[in-house]
Design a protein that fits this description.
single chain; alpha+beta; four-stranded antiparallel β-sheet; 7 helices; 4 strands
Length: 185
């Protein structure tokens, strides 16, 4: 096969949006991943010693292939208080496995949904929270975390104070999954 046709074939493969595995050769069925828990423990202890603070390992994408539920159990045994995930589905898997997700900032932080103040009950992941809901609420309703003091009484300074952070830190950690609306542009 010429180099040109190999490149074309590669581009075609790259454009495919899904991958379906119909057959796994017998020679591939014996492939194993070995996760060294002692190495994980060493790394956690090293980072704790270096930083002098709690850690929050992120276990998104099935703990990067290590196994979400099993890794969370290992990390809890190693004294990890906080575990980050990227999606609500991952948080639900952890909760269903018996993992108790700590409710940080509980009672200190509020959001505004449909103009009414709602209590933040806890966190799910790095940028997802659990809030008090009402029967009339819909998934598509706007949720204002902080405003300018007029459209939402809670400012970024209030949020930073509740989270023991600086306003700059709050803004820098606003992830790509947050929909932004630009006004007066």
């Amino acid at each position: 096969m010429s180099q040109k046709s190999q490149k074309r074939k590669y581009r075609q493969k790259k454009q495919n949006k899904t991958c379906r595995i119909n057959y796994i050769p017998a020679s591939d069925k014996d492939i194993k991943a070995i996760i060294d828990v002692n190495a994980i423990k060493h790394n956690i202890n090293f980072l704790r010693k270096k930083t002098g603070t709690d850690l929050m390992p992120v276990l998104k994408a099935d703990a990067y292939g290590h196994g979400l539920v099993e890794m969370s159990k290992i990390l809890r045994k190693l004294g990890i208080k906080y575990i980050g995930v990227a999606t609500l589905g991952e948080a639900i898997l952890l909760r269903e496995s018996g993992d108790i997700i700590p409710m940080t900032a509980s009672g200190k932080l509020y959001v505004y949904i449909n103009g009414t103040k709602r209590k933040v009950l806890g966190t799910i992941s790095m940028d997802q929270i659990i809030v008090q809901a009402k029967k009339d609420d819909k998934v598509s309703d706007d949720c204002i975390i902080f405003g300018n003091g007029y459209n939402c009484k809670q400012t970024i300074f209030d949020v930073a104070k509740a989270g023991d952070a600086s306003p700059v830190e709050i803004l820098c950690h606003t992830g790509y999954r947050i929909n932004r609306t630009y006004v007066n542009h």
